[in-house]
Amino acid sequence: MKSFVSRKTLLQVLFWSTLWVLLPLLLSGNWELSERASVRATVLFFGVAIVVLINLEVLLPRFYFKKQQLIYLLLSFLLVALVLYIIEWDLSPWAEHFKPRGKHRSLSGRNSSMWKTMRFINTSMPYVTAWIGSSLIAIAAFANRKEKEMIQLQNEKLAAEMKFLKSQTNPHFLFNALNNIYTLTVIKSDAASENL
Predict the structure, then answer these.
(1) Which of 53, 68, 87, 101 suits a disulfide with 63, CB 3.0-4.6 Å?
(2) What's the count of helices (H) and strands (E) in the chain, helices before strands?
(3) Distance (Å, whole) CA 152 – CA 172
(4) Are 84 and 124 in contact (CB under 8 A)?
(5) In Å, how far are 106, 107, 124 from 111, measured between CA atoms?
């Protein structure tokens, strides 16, 4: 029975999700997990897992590997945008943990738009890099597998050609053919000339 998710997909889901949960902790140096940090880490883990899982199990096999790269890019962009929207959605149970705190709430004008841009880049970075990274790994594995298949086909073709050439120069085949011709000439059969 084939499982719903391949082992390689599961490993990538765990890798990218764990990476983007641990990276902010390592960079901030804050090892005390507050409720806010643990909720953000959990939502981030599942958000990245969803992006990687859908990318590897649905989008890549159905579109990219079937030469529909433009549709793949469009659907991938929509996937990342949808996950970002759900995470940033004001009515979600975790919304309070993703709202900016402190001085960033009261910024106005140019500083406010710059802050929003930086916040958007910061929020989307895990999902975009997980999507790009998982895609590159899967595409490289696919290309490697195709190259191995091509080499195997070439080897099988060469083996078949060698077998065919050996069958043509097989001494038993030659001996039997000459023996048949000799026998036909001894009995003076008209078929002897046809076998030459």
Answers:
(1) 68
(2) 8, 0
(3) 31
(4) yes
(5) 10, 6, 20
CA 164 to chain centre: 39
d(CA 89, CA 134): 25
Task: Write down the pTM of the prediction.
Answer: 0.70
Residue 142 pLDDT grade (very low, low, confident, very high; cuts 50, 70, 90): very high
**Helix or strand run (H / E) with residue 20:** helix 7-28
Least confident of 52-61, 106-115, 149-158: 106-115
Query: How many whole angstroms separate alpha carbon 4 and alpha carbon 25?
Result: 32
- pLDDT at 37 exceeding the cut of 60: yes
Question: And the tokens for 34?
Answer: 């507050």
Separation CA 45–CA 51 (nearest Å): 10
Residue partners of 87: CB distance under 8 A and separation at least 6: 43, 44, 47, 94, 98, 123
**Distance from C-alpha of 128 to C-alpha of 136, rounded to nearest angstrom:** 12
Encoded tokens for 38: 């643990």
Q: What is the identity of the amino acid at 131?
A: W
Q: What percent of the chain clears pLDDT 70, i.e. is strictly above it?
A: 79
Q: Residue 169 has what DSSP assignment?
A: S
Please, which pLDDT band fits residue 76 given cuts at 50, 70 and 90?
Answer: very high
Is the pLDDT assigned to residue 24 strictly greater than 70? yes
- pLDDT at res. 1: 38
